[in-house]
Amino acid sequence: MLDRDFLTLGEEVEAALRAGSALVALESTVIAHGLPRPLNFETAQRLELLVRERGATPATVAILGGRLCVGLDEAQLARLAESDDVRKVSRRDLAVAVARGWDGATTVATTLWVAARAGLRVFATGGIGGVHRGTLPDVSADLPELARTPLTVVCSGAKSVLDLPATREWLETHGVTIVGYGCDELPAFYERRSGLPVDARADSPAEVADLARARDALGLEGALLVAVPVPEDSEVEEGLMRESLSDALSEAARRGVSGRELTPFLLAHMSTAGTEIYEGGRQGSLLEGESDGSFRLAASTSSALFSQPSLKIFPPLFLRACGVSVANPPSGSSGARRKREPQRAPRRSSF
Q1: Which of the four, 37, 97, 106, 220, has the lowest number of CB atoms within 10 Å?
Q2: Taking the complete model, does pTM exceed 0.85, yes or no?
Q3: Among this protein's residues, is 159 annotated catalytic?
């Protein structure tokens, strides 16, 4: 576990870790920067409730006074929601945020980094970043963190304003397994389909948990990315989304907007073009709709993972969080010594 000089665990989170019960990490950028007030605070409470309803403990991650906090109480959630001095913190900003005592909302990448070091195994979020459109290579910090952090990440895909085929290709190249939950195509956040295939399909939390256990047992580094389509009644109509995006791309080309400025421009243009896709109230209701499935699945998956514990498949960070010495693993773990069986002569192939 990360040095406790930098890390603060909420009381519920610490109790859940000690008891070996289900936990789900949540990001905090949506609270401080994603929605208008007071909708942001109400949505944060609602998302935590979705996790609790499935028997897991929510662990919202944030930086408060330079400390990495995992599990916030109501006053801390309100502090993030109401303050004008909360910075958006990605992984590159962590050292600065800690050294200078910032209050910070964690992105997907930062939440992954902190949650893994606190011993959590499942993370739920609305959507991930990806490869941005344009000629210059611009890759969200979310993607490299997904490639090197062995958590199960449940989300509704990536937004259509991103280059989805390039995002899909990046994840494949870097060994991130994409699982479609009840679907065979990668969802696109507010849209149920993108036309891009997933690597595997799962239709129950138990199936997702089995995949996560296998990933851990093999010692694979990357995340298991579980994509849950938004409910049909919450989906943005495909024609509306395509028309709005096309208009935004045309305007960006006319103004010469490119590189890292392109995605923020597209989102801003779509929010003011009269489509109401990204307008505050509409966005809040969409977020809750698309989060219902993702956050409940994350909680159920976490419960399934802990319902059949086996130390031989737990990652080292979780073992340390439970006070188990990784250097001297207990009997039955993957590192335990076993009697060597006599080698048998290899069977002769019939070919």
Answers
A1: 37
A2: no
A3: yes
